[in-house]
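User: Structure tokens for this complex, please. No commentary.
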Amino acid sequence: MRFTVSLSLISIAAVAKCLPSLVTDDSASIPPSSTVFQFSQPVDHFGLNDDVWQQQYQLNATFYKPGGPIFVVTPGESAVSNSYTDGSYFNNLAQEVNGMVVAVEHRFYGKSNPMPDLSGPSLKYHTIDNVLEDFASFIRAARTAPGDVFPFAVSPDSKVIFGGGSYAGAIAAWMRAKYPSLVDGAWASSAVVQYRLENYQLEQSWGKHLAALGCATGMSQAVNQLDAVLLSDNQTAIDEIQSLFGSPSLTPRDFAGLITSLIGVAAMYPNYEGIDYTQNTVCSYFDGQRSDLDSFAWAVRDIISSLGLTQQAMTQMADTSLNWDNYALGQSGRVWYYQECAWYGNWQITAPEDTGLAPYHSRLVDLTYYEPNCRNKFGSDMPEHADSDGFNQKWFGMLKNATNIYYTVGSLDLWRGSTVVPWDGDSLPNTDVSPIYLMDGATHSQDVAHPWSDDLESVKDARNVGLALVKKWIA
Ligand SMILES: *[C@@H]1O[C@H](CO)[C@@H](O)[C@H](O)[C@H]1NC(C)=O
Ligand SMILES: *[C@@H]1O[C@H](CO)[C@@H](O)[C@H](O)[C@H]1NC(C)=O
Ligand SMILES: *[C@@H]1O[C@H](CO)[C@@H](O)[C@H](O)[C@H]1NC(C)=O
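Assistant:
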């Protein structure tokens, strides 16, 4: 459920270091939140490469009063923009407690590029330890030498709350766990903190929602029928089924990947801003008037036409090796792929047959659909499989005794299986020091979104609980 959001970034060149650090008229010197600042970082914090690059950040200090806290957020796998300083609940929190919001771009995303390209050798500096140390260095400067970071007067030793949603929610939690003396507390919304080589928990969460809507059995039967054809070696039947789904002629695996992506983009959104896309885009087609396979095909054809996809666009969408030798900067999908190959796997696949679980996507979308591209894209140094268990033991393990982390998870969050309260498997205890709020009926990271009129009661309540915690942490 990750798609590339393209946000317009108004880039106003500004170098914080040239600006005076002591000013008396605060309101006159607070820059618009669209101003982009830069902070110098080494390519590698652990001595492998001391070259310097510039990390981008933007800030909203409209509500800041001396002594107030700094809410540090990161867009994670997206480019920074003032939607992250102005358009999230952290902006409201800042208003409540005289704080400011600083959005710091994640290395290798947006324009925060440690290296001149995105080749495998350049991306070897893309480690989670470097990512977190970038944020830590920024926070250290903000606390000890605020004049180096802010173009207006900011108190030294400010309290710092790290916040984020989804992958950035995990970063928030890790920042508090790893740097408790720099980060006073973390608000980790729908934090994706459990990593597995095979992430079929996402697909199975969606299956639970299909079941609640009454079309899980139909969908899973349709998928089984589809797979029987795709695995049949009967080219006539394979051609027929691809044309039934409105697809160009592809290999069976790429075709399965295409359909899975289309469903992921258009249908895996239960209760998103009051609309249930799973119901509208998939389940409403399973109305008993036609076969399950025809219902599925009809739903997919309608997704294709509503997205206006050409045959060429679909061929590209299906091909995970696309642009394997294009190293140009600015490809967030490529950097994300590297994280999957080199850090944690977490490949979004369908439950393998030996789990005994019903499938809701084609089983042809398995590890062999994704993993071979790691070496194609990033070179022969890539491991055959990511060390998901090692990553998880270290980074999920680190959270087990961490304090001052507020975890929020929606009960309908499809990513719930990767959070601190999965359906089954390892969960964190809900403690007074690091409480967990399971928001009834909510989906992914709704609490940290900008408040709107139709917010669920559970989301509003989770925000109030979080606000009280923030007040405690900064007191
Ligand atoms: C800060 O965010 C608020 C929205 O709450 C917005 O109205 C204001 O213009 C922003 N401040 C600056 C200086 O851009
Ligand atoms: C292959 O599929 C076609 C179309 O569904 C069918 O008519 C034909 O009998 C199949 N061939 C075999 C050998 O099963
Ligand atoms: C973490 O907390 C648990 C339970 O309180 C305790 O048994 C364990 O020893 C602690 N681990 C560390 C690394 O402090």
